[in-house]
Amino acid sequence: MKYIIILGDGMADYPIDELNGKTPLMVARKPHMDFIAGKGQTGLFQTIEPDMATGSAVANLSVLGYNPRTDFQGRGVLEAASLGVLLEPHQLVLRVNLISVLDGKIKSHSSGHISNPEAHELISGLQDYFNSWNIHFVPGLGYRHVLIFPNGNTGVSCTPPHDYLEKPIDTLMVKPKTKEAEEEAKILNRLILESNKFLENHPINQKRRKNGQLPANYLWPWSPGKKPNMPTLKEKFNITGAVISAVDLIKGIGVYAGMSVIPVKGATGLYDTNYENKADAALKALDDHDLVYVHVEAPDEAGHEKNLKLKIRCIEDLDQRLVKRVLNGIAGKEKDTVVALLPDHATPIIHGAHTRDPIPVAIMDPRLPPDLVHTYDEKSVESGSLGLLRGSQFMETLTRKI
Length: 402
Fold this sequence. Notes:
Blueprint: E1 2-8, H1 24-27, H2 31-39, E2 41-46, H3 56-63, H4 68-71, H5 75-82, E3 92-102, E4 105-108, H6 116-129, E5 136-139, E6 144-149, E7 156-157, E8 175-176, H7 182-199, H8 203-210, E9 218-225, H9 233-237, E10 241-244, H10 248-256, E11 260-261, H11 275-285, E12 291-296, H12 298-304, H13 308-329, E13 337-342, E14 359-364, E15 387-390, H14 393-398
Parallel strand pairs: 1-12, 1-13, 2-15, 10-11, 10-12
Antiparallel strand pairs: 2-14, 3-4, 3-6, 3-9, 5-6, 7-8, 13-14
Helix pairs in contact: 5-10, 11-13, 12-13
């Protein structure tokens, strides 16, 4: 069998008054997602356990059948892998955002989605500015970058900026979890404050303000970790895999999972991503891989921005431009292809941050009869035959032998 996982990052949500108590998934026009639910088995999936951080890394590792408690060693190390950085076990690695801070509060976790050229120029300048610190920056996509220390302690508590919009940064600074990590916390807090001295009046930020755009006026490090020791998909499930995503985090998970990372022209991680190219790349990758993981970030970013109209549009674009194209592409091969649809977590519009709520899942397996669910959304799948999946049960269900 062949397997395709289509993941709309953060597309699950809460009932919204503006939508008469419905969610974006309930009101969006998504006939092809509904087709998968109607022809498949549905249910809920607890991708993030109650005591785990509500990050995309934890959620996507769960989707792929990994145990985040042992396999997740920090977001930065995964993004570094995506960027081709071969880490040593002793190195401390963090994800670092270029963020906008106005009146002492985090206004945007993405500096208003700063462009790659602008971000790379700023990161290059910061590397020179912090030259005496013996640290290394690796530029990533847009606002997302990686910070590497030659040594360090992971016992620091950092806050993901997308979960604390409009919160004062002086309440969110890095804190040590142990006495041994006190020095790391001090260094990281100094870095945050020093970065503002370089960034605040940089010509790029002067130009962005003049154009009515948010400035990238602070660095924000978070999700510290060291090199993980993950088994590959081949070792876990005896399948080969490929990953398609614009997001370095997801690509990095793919690297450590032994998956092929497929580049896609026009993949942006935003609402303007090239859905068609992603669909075509997935279909092509299916020729020589057992499983293809197609990740679309756009609904999550709309959720973080609390942009209801955009989130609905992203769901509809995913349905019309990617899901439909994939379903048409496997026509004639349906008997040999299992298609799964799900988000990794919810990113409710009401507060713009990830939650731990179970997410809706649909698995269209041609070997099995459908259940009685005919639409794909958070509520309808509650009566589905899959029940509530946890841990590695989604991947085990997806790849089961019948």
